[in-house]
Amino acid sequence: MSFFSLDSKFSQIMSRVFDLMMLNIIFLIMCIPIVTIGANFTAMYYVTLKMIKNEETYIFRTYWKSFRENFKQATAIWLILLAVLIVLILDLLLVMKMPGAITYLRFVFLVLICFEAMVLSYVFPVLSRFDNTVKNTIKNSILMAIRHLPWTIMILLVNLCPLLIYVFSTTKIVSYLILLMFLLGFSTVALGCSWFFVNKIFPFYMPEEEKEVLTPEEESLRALEAMDRPSPLTDRSNDAAAAETTDAAPADAAAETASEEKSASPAEQPETDE
């Protein structure tokens, strides 16, 4: 096989790098209005999750599909969490300037800021993968982050990797890092985090017995149903059981009626459709 053939490993790697570069540029351009950052993170994770699963994707078309469908929910979640983060940072700065023992409260606010960083690491991938309300998406993200704490720490480290390199590097390396972030930094970080979600976290909530190909909507609904069974991610609801009972009652009544009619006229032959 030729080194530069379309089926070679080199060509596949370069194709993936080009896709990540396109995704990163689209992400940066669409993030210019700061209010759209949440929707853009959701759309980017929607694409990178598909990349990890080796699903064929058309970068812009797939990105725009998720951006359009999740814009309202993602924007609401982003504004809520951004407001909470700003309040926590302002409180931290205020406490650090106060004299006396009250300064020890800074550790409390630091823990809360780290906790919000965990939620931010989960909420947009979860929104891109599962259909739910704003409240339940945030709630499930919190519970997932706590439940999978070791993987959450790994995801946080991947997200903070560019920042850590920036802090502990020389000026020359920092300049290259900034260029790299503009070219494919954000999409590469999202791809790295997506590996953990696809292989270590989301499968926990996916029914193993389901092998048939499902639409994204059906897959999301079944995943959330599976999530209810093993964990308290969402409040258990009896609506589904009530609906099954309600549906079963007329079916039983119809079966009994059919049985009575059959026993009353055994000589009658069933009609056939022509």
TrEMBL record:
Residues 239-257, 264-274 have a biased composition (Low complexity). Keywords: Membrane, Transmembrane, Transmembrane helix. The keyword Membrane applies. The chain crosses the membrane at residues 20-47, 75-95, 107-127, 148-168, 174-198. Residues 219-228 have a biased composition (Basic and acidic residues). The keyword Transmembrane applies. Coiled coil: none annotated. Residues 216-274 are annotated as: Disordered. This is YesL family protein. It comes from Fusicatenibacter saccharivorans.
